[in-house]
Amino acid sequence: MLAGRVEEMATPDILLIGHVARDLLRTDPSDGYRLGGTVSFAAVTSVKLGRRPTIVTAAAPGLDVSELPRDVELHVLPSAATTTFANTYIEAGRIQHCSMRARPITAADIDPSLRRPRAALLGPIADEITPDVAHVLAEETLVVATPQGWMRHFDEHGRVHAKPWESAPAILPHVDAVVLSLEDIGADLRRLDPIVAQVPLVVVTEYRDGSTLYRRRDDGSLSVTRIPPRPAREIDPTGAGDVFATAFMIRFQETGDPVEAARFANVTASFGVEAVGVAGIPSRDVVLVYMRENPFRMGAHG
After folding, report:
1. What pLDDT was estimated at residue 96?
2. What pLDDT does residue 146 have?
3. Domain Carbohydrate kinase PfkB, which positions (predicted)?
4. Structure pTM?
5. CA-CA distances (angstroms) from residue 119 to 44, 95, 144, 215?
6. In the 3-class helix/strand/coil scheme, how is 133-195 assigned residue by residue?
């Protein structure tokens, strides 16, 4: 564990598993970096929403984690490298390169004291979480997965490309919800079929168009609900999906209402893109005030 962090805590409230990352500010490493990765955005979101996050990650010694709130509990597995990305945004999306990858995270790395949180987010960014991690989390834990990192492969130049989610059959039976983007599935909704067939809740984020919630009923039928966006003045979209997934997980764990949770997540993520990095992630009060002033009517949206 990194020095200066909380040494002992009770059973985790929110457990976040995945690589922290160095996100290069330019393509040249000498230009510096900021802290990135799903778990980094998720940790800040959790704190902003009044919850207590614990991160299990892997990184090289000396990684600067000062951007994280002080009350985040960090469990850092030693690694020869820290996962490092460079992101270039274009009209059609983003181009990513990964120059370094930290070691994988396995079930053996999840201490027994961490396996019974209220909610857990599996947030891989570089195919780093092995399938057995999902197996060791307690049955009563709400487990949410953001599979983008399992759906990436890296060419000889580090360019990130899409691939099928090969580990899905081993992971899906052990998760309660999956959050992914249209980009993750190449805008091909047919790729959702095997996920929806095994997971009761699937949310697809659709950038400026909000999100769509897929709920599998007890009789096997499927309910599809479009959740409208909050219009945002976008400055930096990096991490928006991570903020969404975390806010959805937290609100669903609190209310048991997936529509409420998806609306809450839409609003939270929309505020997040209005500043650079994690600076725009809003407090719970800001989100709830907006939702009260702009109610969502199911009948109007399906």
Report:
1. 82
2. 98
3. 198-279
4. 0.91
5. 15, 31, 8, 19
6. HHHCCCCCCEEEECHHHHHEEECCCCEEEECCCCCHHHHHHHCCEEEEECCCCCCCHHHHHHH
